[in-house]
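Could you help me review a protein record that somebody else here produced? What it holds is a sequence and that sequence's fold in token form. I have pasted the whole thing underneath without changing anything:
=====
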Amino acid sequence: MKTWWKGTLAIFAVLFVLMLLQDAVDRKLVKKRANSFQLLALTAAIIGMYFTYRDFQYYYAHRWLKEKFHLGGYLFWIGWIGISLYFLFGKQEAPSANENLPTETADSLEEQKSANKIH
């Protein structure tokens, strides 16, 4: 890519898709399986960062690229590591008992309870 902002936009799009995928996994799977997936994603990101470092250090053509290119490569992996850590250790909110009920049902249940107390 000839301009920096096109590369940045592409990297942002990939990170955004990864975040959406990890969010869907976190919401759809049971907690144990979701954590296993997040741990797998974290491991993949760390391994990717290691191989990027090795590539930049030992591959002759990449050693001569400017530091902004190297920084961009590392920032991608750091971003994915951050996304994985967020979903792995982020606060999981349990849904309230009435959250899944339609509002009419929740209101009518409250009315029934109050009516039962009166009688």
